[in-house]
Amino acid sequence: MTLKGRDFLSVDDLSPEELRHVLDVATDLKRRSKAGDRPPLLAGRVLAMIFEKPSLRTRVTFETGMWELGGHAIYLAPQDIQLGARESVPDVARNLERWVQGIMARTFAHRTVQLLAEYAHVPVINGLSDIEHPCQTLGDLLTIRERFGHLDGLRAAWVGDGNNVCHSLLLGAAKVGMHVAVATPPRYAPEPAIVARAREIASAAGGRIEVGTDARAAARGADVIYTDVWVSMGQEAERDAKIKAFSDFQVNAALVSQAASRAVVLHCLPAHRGEEISDEVLDGPQSLVLDQAENRLHAQKALLSLIL
Predict the structure, then answer these.
(1) pLDDT digits (tens, 9 = 90+) for 168-226
(2) Which CATH class is domain 11-133+295-307?
(3) Active-site residue 106, yes or no?
(4) CATH of the structural domain 136-293, one choice from 3.40.50.12780, 3.40.50.1370, 3.40.50.620, 3.30.420.60
(5) How far apart are CA 139 and CA 131, in angstroms?
């Protein structure tokens, strides 16, 4: 199966079969890496990394991933490009395609990664936008599959803000036949169009998508409980209102007790301890957050090796 030359802006850019193939390659590359075998699959290739938002995990995992695959990554900070201000997005895309073999962009607006993909004739990867965080979902699904040995039929509960991470999880989980129950305050539900698309995918894959406002109901019997920060970068002005609205949506020991006894807890990090998740749960035996963080590296290596 080849994905060479493809963009990855959304989890929905991959078919269910392609998604599982990326996970299979990630598993193989992780195993080989742990054994000291790092094949130079991307020798001589360069990835430009555009950051409008800073990130620990995204920068380190992409940069390390390219190095482990024999390639090179160039970090472009916000002040280096000033997308849309110093230079237009199409002009940046048309310049970069002359120098590098791929572009990863972590942006505020999803339209920015779409424009990069439209004007650059090299693969573009969405490292995060306001609509999706597809690379996070690759790492999440890899982490869940490692723990349970499979994905189909598992039940995941998303508790908190119906944000970009939630959107990508809905699409990815639907493609692998998982059931997802989302619980958010009424004003913070995931985008209806993405929910509708996830339900369409799930109906064909044997999964189910539920969206509601009851955190305990969503968590009941879940194999996976997932949360994210309530106040994302760029939403600081909404902080007070969101903290109040989300007060009943903390992932704590009481909520986790509603889940299956084998349940695991996920968080894409960074975490605001004592807000969306308690210290007891984040640092507890059911937490797989550091496995998630590590698996961003292996999942993205698989993606890079297949599309560049």
Answers:
(1) 999 999 999 999 999 999 999 999 999 999 999 999 999 999 999 999 999 999 999 99
(2) alpha beta
(3) yes
(4) 3.40.50.1370
(5) 18
